[in-house]
Every structure is written in structure tokens, then in C-alpha cells.
User: What shape does this take?
Amino acid sequence: MRTEAWRVEISGKQDAPTAVAVVDPDGTVSGWSEGARLLLGWTAEDTVGRAVTELLVDPAPPGFPEGYGTGPDPTGFITLRHRDGFTVDAVVTAHPLSGPDGRALGHVMTVQRWGRRPVIADRAFEQSPFALGVYDPELRFLWINASSCRVIAHSEEQVLGKKYREVLPEFDRTLFPERDDKPYTDALAEVVRTGEATRLITVFRPRGSDYANAWATSIWPVRDAKGRVRAVANWGFDMSAEYWARQRLLILNEASAGIGRTLDVTGTAQELAMAPVPGFVDLVSVDLFDEVLRGEEPPSVSTFDPDETITLRRAAQHSAKEGADPAAGPTTPVSHPAGSVAARCMVAGRSTVELAAEPGQGGEWAFGPGLAADPAHWPPGNPVIDESIASNGLTGRITVPLRARGALLGVVAFSRLDRPEAFTADDLILAEELAAKAAGAIDNARRYARERTTALTLQRSLLPQGLPIQEAVEVASRYLPGGTGTEVGGDWFDVIPLSGARVALVVGDVVGHGLHASASMGRLRTAVRTLADVDLPPDELLTHMDDLVLHLASDVQPASHFQPTGETGATCLYAVYDPVSRRLTLASAGHPLPLIIHPDGTSVPVPVQPGPPLGIGGLPFEATELELPEGSLLALYTDGLVESRERDVDQGTTELQRALDPSAPSLEALCDTVLDAMLPDRRTDDAALLLVRSHALDPHHVADWDVEPDTAQVPRVRKAAVDQVDVWGLEEAAFVTELVVSELVTNAIRYGEPPIRLRLIRDTSLICEVSDASSTAPHLRRARAFDEGGRGLLLVAQLTQGWGTRHTSNGKTIWCAQTLPVSGPY
Assistant: This one.
């Protein structure tokens, strides 16, 4: 289409042509001007003699051309047909012609394009810095200004009459599929279809440019006098600076939410590597000192030799390319030679931007449009033009040292691959903000790892390193700390051999986490062992423990209002099992009760209510006693095993009971099975498990006698004990047994109260027990040279491997034990 069809030159100024036609009274064209040819393409030969209505697209207005309008020079809006097939909206003015006699000779009609404006107005639109354009309903170009020509890299002559999709096919596809944007041409067509204006932001790379621009665009329908959509128009302006600044803020905001979610050094490094890809860069690598990965203090920068290579470990790496290795792993060493960009950045503590692009013409850097292109915006020494990075497929790289609290942790490199946009000073600020955010999170994770390792080491040193050898029960245990993102808790368990072949089973949980909880756990475990040696009943032992926790709480009160204190309080379950009577006595201080399953698979409820947690004070604890068949399975545990975010305690307890198999041949294997079934991959709390299978002592390995309170009965009792030892085949223990029985029975007769009873137990040791109704406990004392007494207990203590006193509800029991061969009684 010729441009001349749209414009003529008048008085040296470009203006739209005015068509003049002479129409006879019968509506036949009798005259046609050159302006009419320029406006509509029809020549005088084409139109003279034809009805003027043949040039109209719509039916002629009433009375057209005769009587068209009212008043002098009536004016109206019509739509004319151009010779090339498209339509021209125009303003028509009819001037009546009269002869000398007043007879009507027709009309002189002047026609101008609709929207006719003064020339200066056309100049304003043409020279507008905003991109302006008008398109017909088929999205053919009707008019664009000079700014639009620059944006689409086409002249007006090249696009007029052509469809938008033909000129700009790249706008006929989705520019950002990940955002579900619709093509720009669809937005234009939608306005034509609905007649409703719209606004949007379009990001595209103009032809001939290496940089993507962001344009704010408005699209609106253009209507005729009857309200019909005759065209669609748009305008837009380049908002790249604002848009990319907003994108940087969005990346930084997302990174702030995504970096530091876990207290794990490697995990945090991986979060840093993934956050800016692909919105900001295409490849990120994070290198850390080995000491940082181990949770230790990083080396001091002052110790670096400028002539030596700095060796780090690749903690994380992430690439936008498909199939790229997402992370090299913390075991991969990475060397940065002396003088390299990374080494210089770490030593100097300053970031460096490397660009593969050469400066443009006139010495100006080739920065993206609308962004800070003045080198004064860059910090000293930046950017560095380094063509060598292009050999690695990079178009630019920002290297930033990772520093936190004055310590150098490593270095991070942000790289762009195969994209023409060069980094800007604003990009450097974003990279440094990301690095600062990640460095703080990595240092927090490092410090946490160090404290957690210390607390875990302390806790493991305070837990039993090996369960004691005893024959009352078979035991297996597991302790698992919380996941990496949680602090070490205060869970503990213990198995304590007691007198009379009995055994104490303990499990507890200190409130809180960290070093304080581990230290408190160690103190409580020691206290339980000390009180167990006194052989207190479970309820009395928990009462003493409650007092102890109250004292511990008072010990940790802050000296000032600004000194924090650790949490206090604990739960504890204490149970005593006697393999002779097969009875289990237990009491709980706020701790979950054990699960008990008989050999036939029957679950046995424990008929006792847990008491208050330790540290409440003033409330009693209730003990209960159960008789267990031999081979019963007991599960003692902490709440971390059954409670999690996914389930409550009751549901977890049900699942634990389902996982316990009393017929399992190995308790060790059953422990692993239970943990696999109960614990999620990401644990939020410690978990302790103690599995116990009860044994029963053979009745033939227990012998007892009632003793009359008469010293004359001592020889008879002594002989009976020696005879029983001989029956058991323990002749080597007969001499010592005879002595200790004689001394203990004699003391009971002289200083105790009836009834008196002697019992021998053959277990892993030979146990001698003498019970009486007196609560007075005997004491060792040093006898003088001429004293007739005072040597009995001293003799017992010297001849046996242990002795002691335990109080019962109706008196006391004095006991002593002799070591037997390892084969034991079974």
C-alpha cells in the first residue's frame, strides 16, 4: 500500500488529504478531486458517472446526499470503501450548489479522514516517546508512530496494511510459559472481541537488541459514532528499569524465605545455589572451608599466604541446564590458585564482576536498556572484562566472598550461560544481598552443628555405654537424637542390677533441648542410680527424684533479670522386676506407661495412673505390681517415638503396639524394626526405646528357711545352707557361705526382730539374704583388739563381692553376693 494514499504535503507540512466530490441532485458523481484520489484510491475515471452511494460501506444516512444534515454545511460521519478493499472512516460535509435561478445543482462534498486533527496534533502523536499504534479489527496496521517503528524495527511503510502476526510472529506465542501469559496478539484480539480495554506488562527482546525490555501497555477499542468497534489502539512505554528492579526484589524476597530453612550447612548452601536460578543467573556454585562443613571455626584470613592455593570444598552447585549435576557434594575439593578471582575476593573481602562482552562504540558499556549504564555506579575495580570466561560458556560471572560476623566462610559464584544480558551494578547489589543472607544462615548452621555435636557427645557419654550382665531380663536398646534441624534432647534409659537377682528398668525425658538438657539428664541418671543402690521402692524413689529436680530448678535461677535460664522438669518411669517371683513393680512420674505383651500376644494394660512430672512437688506417686509370665515382652520408650506432627500420642502408641512382636527371636532386630516403622525421616524430637524380655529364675535355684530367734539354731541353719550349696555343685563356695550365713543369722537373732528368714539364690552370683522385722540397719565398724564383737559385717564385706541392706514394708533384708563361674545357673 502506498503511503501517498494517506498523506499529502501542504505548505511544507505533512497533512492528511481532503477529498472533494461534486454530486448531482440525483446522487451521481460529476466531479472528483486529486485529494479524493489520494484519500480513497479511486480516480476520476473510476467515479464520475457512478452513484455516490456505491462508495459507502454502510447504507447512506437518510437524505444523503440530498438534504444531508441541516443548516449550512451539514456534517456527518460515514464509512467509505477504499479501492484496495479496506475501509476509511471519514467526516463528510455537504455544501449545496444553486444556479442563478436558485435551482439546486447538487452538492459539493468535502471528505476528511475521521479523527482529523490539526497538523501540530499529528506531530505530537508522531513524536510521542510512547509507542502508539492503531489496527483494524483484523489486526492490520493502520498507523504507528516513530517510537513504535523503533521498537518493532520496521518502518511505517513496511507494515501498513499488514497483519500484526505477519510482521511480529514472535508476539503470537507465549513469552513466559511458566507464567501462563497469553500471546500479545491474543490480547489485541480479545479487546476487539469484547470491546473492553486492558492493561498488561509485556517482556520481549526488540529486534536487533540483545536485551529484553519490559513494556507497560494499554490496549483499548476505537468505536465509531454508533458505538461499533472499528479499530483497536495501543500505547506503551519502556519500564525496564522499574521492572527489573522489581524482579530483583522478588528474587531477594523468595531467597529470604528459601535460604536458611534448615540448620544444616550443606542444605543451606544448596538453598543458596537454587534460589537465583534461573530468574537471575544460570549457574551457581558454593565453595566452603572444610572447617565450616564440620561445624568448626573457619581459618583466619590473616593466615592466608597470597602465593598459596586456597582449597575449599564444593558444598553445592545448581545449573539451569537439564541434566547438569545439581550438587557436586561436600566431599569434592576445589582449588583456587593464588591470583585467581575467587582467591582475590576472599583475601580482599570484595566482590568482582567479570564480563565477557567488549565495550561498545564510543567507550560506553553495553548495558541493558533502562538500567544504570554509568560506570560511576560500579564500585572500584568493577566490572572486569575477561574474555577467558567465554571459553567456559559464560557471558558473565559475579564472585562474592561469604562472610558472617567477621569470619570468612567461603565463596559463591553467580554465572550466566549463553544469555547476552550483561550484569549491571544493580545485579551486583542483588548478588551481595543473596550472599550476605546465605552467609548468616550458613554461620548459624555451623554454630548450631558445633553445639549440637557437643551436646550429643555429652549425652552419649552420659548414656549407658553397654547394658550390664544380668539374668533377670534380656534387653536391647536404641537412642536416636532428633533430626539435623533440631537440638539434642534429654532422653535417657538405664538398666540397673539390684540385690536379690532383681533388676531396675528406667526411662526418662528431660524438658528442653541442648547442653542444658543433656547435663540435666546426666545428673538425673546419676541420682536414679544412687537411689537404686539404696533399694527404694519405685514410688519412694520418684518422690526423692521430685525433690532433687526442685533443687536443680532453684540452682539455675538467674542472678539478674537479663540472664536466661534453662527449662527444668522431667518425666521418669521406674520399674523393678524380680525373676524369683516374676513380679514387676513400677511407678511413673508423668512418663508414658510401658507396653506389656504376654508370650501369647495378649496385650496387658498397666493398671496405674502416671503421676505428675518431676519438679511439680508435693504430689504423691502411685506404684503398682504385676505378675508376668516368663518370656513377656516390655517396651519402655519416650514420647519422641510415638508422637510427631503427623500423629498424636494415642495413634502412635497403637502403631507401636502393632509393631511389637513377642515371638521375635532377636530383640536387637526387633528394635530396628520398631524404629523403621515408627520414626519418620525428619525427626523433630529425640527417641529412646528399651525392649525387655522377662526371664524367670528356676525354683530349684532358690532355697529359704524360717529361723527361730535362738542362737542355738545357728548351727542347724548353717548346715542346711552348706548342704544346699553342695547340691548345687558349688562346693568351692561352701566355706564362705558357711561363714556369712553364720554371721548374718547371728546378727539378726541378736539385734533384729522376728520373724527371721534365710534365703539362698543361685543366679550369676550366689546370693545370701537374711530378713527380719526390724528397720534398724547394721553398720560396719572397726573392732578394738579386745572387743568380743563388731567383726562380723567386716568379715562378710571382706569375703564377698558385695553386701548391703534394703528396707521392705515390714522390715529389712541384709544380703551379700559371691561371684560364680560365668556359665551361670541356666
Residues 393 and 417 are 6 Å apart (CA to CA). The first helix runs from residue 34 to 40. The mean pLDDT is 80. The chain is about 30% helix and 30% strand.
